[in-house]
Amino acid sequence: MNRYITATEYAEKKIWCEKHNWSDPFYQDNQWYAFPPSGVIPLPIPVPPWKKTFLVVVLIIEKLLLIALWLFTICLTILCCFLFFSL
Description:
The protein is built from two helices and three strands.
């Protein structure tokens, strides 16, 4: 599933390409590509290591929140059943 690319994302990649003399950035298969200087085959645009770490942390937090929501739902269901059957 492809996602929509924002103008800000494209602008960031375009600025990076201009700074490093790369050209024609494009997004494909969940990754940014561009042509290096004097290159004819597009290569993946390097991602800073801190950004990879940040993305992993965000994914872990997202999973933890989903687990917490799941546990809350189960506890609420048990509590409702207990209250309903105790009447």
